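I have been asked to look over a protein record a colleague put together. Alongside the sequence sits a line of tokens, each denoting a local backbone shape. I have pasted the whole thing underneath without changing anything:
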Amino acid sequence: MKKSKFPVENSVSRRSFLGSVLALAFTGLDVKTTFAAGKGERGRGPQVYLLRGLANVFSTGLDEIGRRLRLAGVDAHVEGFTAWRSALNKIVADREKFGPSPVVLVGHSLGANAIISLAQALEKHGIRVDYMASFAATSPSPLPANIKRVVNFYFSRHSWGEALMAGPGFKGRLENRDLSHDPNVNHFNIEKQRNLQDEVVKGVLRAVK
């Protein structure tokens, strides 16, 4: 029998893995949010949030994207996936204080699930998401109607990461990009691919102009 290139993924079921993920994430692993901890007023400007996956350690590619955005002058926040409610409160508060500004959401794994939850909550406040980039969402909800453009990198086979689906009223642009053709890319390194990082950085910069 041919040896799998993905021993971790083949050794456990998706259900048991995700169950372990959730248990680990919510028992003793507290995410500290810099933007909710009183670091001062950011002032008017784009709202850019990148949410990592499990335990804040499996999504280091988002840190690189955030670093490149900051070098380009964009005040990008990289946080754990459980921080999405704090991000919601900050976006709503800044909107009330400074008026409308572009909103951009990027996420990997559980963070990709979380940015959809964040977008759904923003819809209730009448706030549009101008650009969303999703890396290997594990159990994504349908996309709400307030998102203008979404690019989703996923796997139809050999690794975890689901295609996204439009929810009721969604009329934005949705691009599901299947990366199953490349056996060297999987759930744990998808957000670290330089070409995908380049694309997301360019997408963010276009959205915040």
Notes: The longest helix spans residues 84-98. The beta strands are 47-52, 76-80, 103-108, 131-135, 149-154, 173-178. The CA atoms of residues 4 and 10 lie 8 Å apart. DSSP finds six helices and six strands in the chain.
